[in-house]
Design a protein that fits this description.
Layout lengths: L8 H13 L3 H13 L6 H13 L3 H13 L6 H18 L1
């Protein structure tokens, strides 16, 4: 017998965390789209994981885009997410010089 469980924010959080650790920013962005397609409510953990994946891949513009999106949704962000965006930008600037 197969039991089908409803996917929730905790499942997405675990998946997003694994993508963050492996620096898979594009898959993380795709998963975020799936997250919202299921009408789940975003939170700081979901956005932080996605922003951190962008940071580790030096995708500062994507990280900034996520920051703006989270802010527009009135998600209370922490200093870690701001630091990740700044760090992503700094990495790119270092690579350019």
């Amino acid at each position: 017998m197969c039991f089908l469980k409803q996917v929730n924010v905790y499942h997405f959080g675990a998946a997003m965390r694994s993508l963050e650790v492996s620096s898979c920013w594009s898959k993380s962005m795709s998963l975020l789209s799936d997250f919202f397609a299921l009408n789940l409510e975003g939170n700081v953990i979901i956005y932080s994981s996605c922003v951190n994946a962008c940071e580790k891949s030096s995708q500062w513009m994507k990280a900034l885009e996520l920051l703006r999106e989270a802010t527009s949704m009135y998600i209370q962000l922490d200093t870690m997410i701001y630091s990740a965006v700044i760090s992503a930008h700094a990495q790119v600037r270092l690579q350019e010089s």
